[in-house]
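User:
I study polymers; will you set down one protein's sequence and backbone structure tokens?

Assistant:
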Amino acid sequence: MIDARERDYRRRAGVVEQTRFLPGTNIEIVREVRLEAPPKHALFDFDGTLSLIREGWPQVMVPMMVSVLKETGTNETPEQLREVARTFVMELNGKQTIYQMIRLAEEVSKRGGRPEDPLYYKKRYLDLLLERIRGRREALASGKASPEDMMVPGSRDILHGLLDRGVRIYLASGTDEEYVFEEARLLGLDEYFGSCVYGAIDDYRSFSKQMVIDRIFRENKVEGAALIGFGDGYVEIDNVKMSGGTAVAVASDEAGRGGKPDAWKRERLIGVGADIVIPDFRESRALLRYLWGEEGAGA
């Protein structure tokens, strides 16, 4: 039985001396993928992998945490507190939001303060974040903004490509379930996943991406090699690799969307075993041809 708890980030893969790119593309092959049979199931993360609605969330979370830590009466400067918060926020990036709030409560205790329940901190953060992205959500709902403006480039192409090849696709996000459902609908992505959408719940022990993977295996009686995972967080990459699947790191540059990988994400995701690194899905056709072992897998 696989331990379904979400593990903290730590590098699990050795240093990769050399990688290669598929000819004429930005698709970086870290470890050659040679599958005996094509994938049957594909698991996607949501924020940063498909959706950009919440782009900029650290600029909301870190200041909120600095404010909370200052209330303890610590002698640390705002700059020092900002570095403390930024470090653990990014270390835990990829896990459910509640884990960052649990760590915040621990940091409050370290400074002699009396922490609130982590769920209180989570609600406070979400209220601030929803205020920040209110305009984006309203623009999508009213039709003033195109869904493509708030998605990782090529997202629809990869989803169409997988469905055309008979692959069943799933969405598993560390964002709260109600918001995943709503934002997937705003982007027009709900039609691709149907009922196979999973998000975080307040009882965080009852949800993890590993649990979703275990459910896929259990309900469909498939082996790990039949699974491919796409994500920009270490949790889904780690879970897919631990389950025997193929992991594609989406090292998306959420703010710039310039077609080049985010260097921090790339290094982090290779460190937990990503087989392939892509900046987005603009070259999904070449990626799928490579994964399916088809000739002429270039652009």
